[in-house]
Structure formats: C-alpha cells, structure tokens
C-alpha cells in the first residue's frame, strides 16, 4: 500500500479539521496516510520518542510527502518565520529541504497540495519547479501520482472552509487617566494589548511588598472594564481563594455571559472555548503567589500554554517575584512580557500625581516625602495621604515654605 506523510502548519481548529477531512479522503483511495491527528487518535499519549523526533522521522523516511501549502508553511521552509512559531512545521520543512538536496533536486517524493489559489502566492522559490495539486480540482491526478485508486463511491467532497469572523478590538481610550504615579511604560504596554496591535497577549507584573502592585493592577482592571465592558473582564485574587475550583467559579461568573461554555468544567472545553472566542476578554490573576500548586499548573497548561492559540484572550498576572512565571523560559515567550516594579525615586511623577490627587499638598512637600521614602511607592503614597488627612492647605504651605 502506498504511504504518504502530510506536513502542515497548525493554524487553528478550522484548518486542522480541513486537513483531517482531506487526509481521510485520501485514505479512502487505498493510501496509507501518516498524519499527526490520526496517530494521536490511536496513541492518546503521543509518540514515546516525542513529537519532534516523530515528525522528523516521518518527513525523512515516509515514502512520499504532501505539503499543505500556504504562506505560514513556506515561511518555515524559507527560514523567515518567527522562531517561536510553527516549530513542528519548521522541523519538518528543514528535513524535507535536506531530503530534496540529498537527491540533487530530483524530486519524485514531495508535492504541494493547496486549498485556495492564494495559498501559492508566496510559494518558496525552491519548490516552484515542482507540480502542485488543488485539493479538490486535481484530486484524481493527485491520487494517480500517489498510486492509489479512487473508489466507485468516494468519501464526501471537502467542505468549504468557513473563515471565522474577524476579531474587533477597541481603540485606545485616550480619555482614561490612571490614578497612579509613573508606571507609564507598564500601562502603555497593557493598554496596547487590548487594542490587538501588539503580538503579546499576557502582561506579568512582578513586585515585592509595598511596591504598588495592588494599586497598579486595580487601575489596569478598571481600564479593561471601561474599554472592553464589565462582562468581558474577570478578576481572580488568589489571596483569599487559591484553588482550581475557585478559579472555575470566578471565570464562569464573570465571563459566563460572553463565553457560555465555561460552565462545562472541562480543561479541554475551556481551551476550546477560549480558542474559538471571537470577542476580546481580559483575565486578571492577582496575588499569584497565594495560588495552590495545582492552580498554578492549571493556569500554566490551560491559559499561558494556550496564548498562541487564543487570539481573543488577554491575561494580566501579578504576584511576588519568586512565584511569577518567566516568559523567557517558555515556548510562549513571544506572547508575553514581564515587568519588575521597583522604586520611583524621581520626584517629578509624584509631583504630577499629587497635583491631581492631593492638590493642596505643595510641591516642596512632595519632594521632601520622596527623599525620605526613597520613592518606595507604598510608603510614599501613604505619607502623602497622611499629610492630606492631617493638615490644611495653609498649614502645609507654612510647613514646607520654600526658603527661596
């Protein structure tokens, strides 16, 4: 029986299903089709040697190879794709390229299949000289090349791919003024993630005690609710409720209207719901250090590990440095950014903040307080609040009269 391996980029669920339908149709023509999805059906635990070696072995040893051609796959072949994206396809593409090189360009083993004409707009230069097949229009010719036989009653034709509705992201809310001193870079980055204009989908806020983390997260969440709407935002504070069950309760209560499937407490269902979401949602996880080990593992597997596939989800995770995930060490590092909050020793942002929050406190008083506290956010804010509550504007002016 002829054998063929199918190499493709896993872009989304609709595309994976389309590849699966095509592979099944080829299989009905007496072809032994090697497809990762078919292998997973028979081996739920995956290959014992791991997916990278399994994929490499298929690309180098299977009798023939079909490439599901599109721009993302060709980028892997050309080595121009983001190094954090399409890792499986990139591995297979390198092996296929080497296999063709070893044969001196004599290619009787690899062909390209495409679903739409536009898929070939950016075909790799090194593959242009070989024939390619439209998955539907040239199906008979493809099967003949593979050495199969089309049965009298063929499996149902491929169904047109239904393109998901595009995500609609809100514009930056310029009228929003965060109630905090400085932290401009952190706020600007977070606000940009909610416009869909940056690749990153997760913001990590790492800070020790008294560094203003709680205040910062509260302002971020307030902004998220204003720009996305309350029904699109969920805030889980692990300080008082730290289990997986608590997280399920919070997500279902806060986002149940926008994402009804959250009531089915299945991790598989959760990932499916988040992947298929077509409206933006914000999930805030605060005091992360208080989450149970099981809860952190749940977040890592079902939220952070899914960042590249959940286009509509934005995450904000905040906690003590020792328990915060480090994106630099993760496969999803291109989709997250971590901020380490430090002191704010420059008096200028405190002066600007106090002018709006405590207008009766003179500039000289703010400078003095910042010098005494070293710009530790919590201590500085507390001291300014004490001055505001204890003294009148006239008393403060007298106490901090500028000698000049």
Radius of gyration: 28 Å
Shape: elongated
Give the H and E element order. EHEHHEHHEEHHEHEHHEHEEHHHH
Count every helix, treating DSSP H or I runs of 4 or more residues as helices: 15
Residues in helix, %: 40-55%
**Main β-sheet: number of strands, strand sense, barrel status?**
5 strands, parallel
Structural class: alpha/beta
CA distance, first residue to last residue = 95 Å
Overall average pLDDT: 86
**How much of the sequence is in beta strands?**
5-15%
Strand adjacency order, main sheet: 2-1-3-4-5
Uncertain residue segments: none
Write structural notes for this entry.
The structure is a single chain. 41% of the residues lie in helices and 12% in strands. With 404 residues, the protein is of the alpha/beta class. A five-stranded parallel sheet has the order 2-1-3-4-5, with helices on both faces. Strand 1, helix 1 (13-27) and strand 2 form a beta-alpha-beta unit. The N and C termini lie far apart (95 Å).
